[in-house]
Amino acid sequence: MDSWTLPLLGGLLIGLATALYLxxxxxxxxISGLLANALFNPSxxxxxxxxIAGLIIGxxxxxxxxEIRTPLPEARAPMLLIISGLLVGYGTRLANGxxxxxxxxxxxxxxxxxxxxxxxxxxxxxxxxxxxx
Amino acid sequence: xxxxxxFITGLLFGLGLALSEMTNPAVVLGFLDIFGAWNPSLMWxxxxxxxxxxxxxxxKRRQLKPILADHxxxxxxxxxxRKLVLGASLFGIGWGLSGYCPGPGLTALVNYPQEGLYFVTxxxxxxxxxxxxxxRNHV
Lengths: 133, 139
Description:
The complex is a heterodimer.
Chain A: H1 5-25, H2 31-40, H3 45-59, H4 78-94, H5 101-108, H6 112-132
Chain B: H1 2-19, H2 25-32, H3 41-61, H4 82-98, H5 102-111, H6 113-138
């Protein structure tokens, strides 16, 4: 199979999920927002937890269901993961979205805010990787 | 019924992440490492996802309201502000450090717990700091 087939198929599935969520429930899929609702918004907590449960179950099908094509990286230092988690957790709240809300849904509905945010976080991440490696 | 749709949506989203290997930080870092051994996977994933999502926004125009809800809850903020720029930059640094954004980070709890536990605990802490700060500013 070509190297782009499965990533494209995976992307189409992610797109299908956001399409169903929009057309059936009227909402934008944003993982950072869902996590915030699960943590801090009692009235939306159950919905957010149900989504996250589905996400984790589907996302851990890698291995049991799909062939592992690329090995996982060797476990990184806890400090690196902690700093990364803090920045992702805080940054996505401040920017009101992450790769899903801005990067998929926002780009698709031609939101200027999302195009700006996505350009920034991808560029900054590329620079970060270039500096670290 | 709404909860079933929500669960299926989450499940499909997770399956998409797994099938495209976005749950593996090595693949994401491979995309971000444009000066190294570049792995274009993430580009295909985003293209596929955005194309389908775009079609759904076209379909939305012909639909008065969501099938199971009374209102559309699509963000309406238009303003570009410092918070957006600063937030996206901090997120970019964090994402580039580990290769985890929130979705794949959550799946790492199962796929790669030695990393996932550290990442998700601090992801929650980062979100909590924001919550505490914005709460304090509004009181």
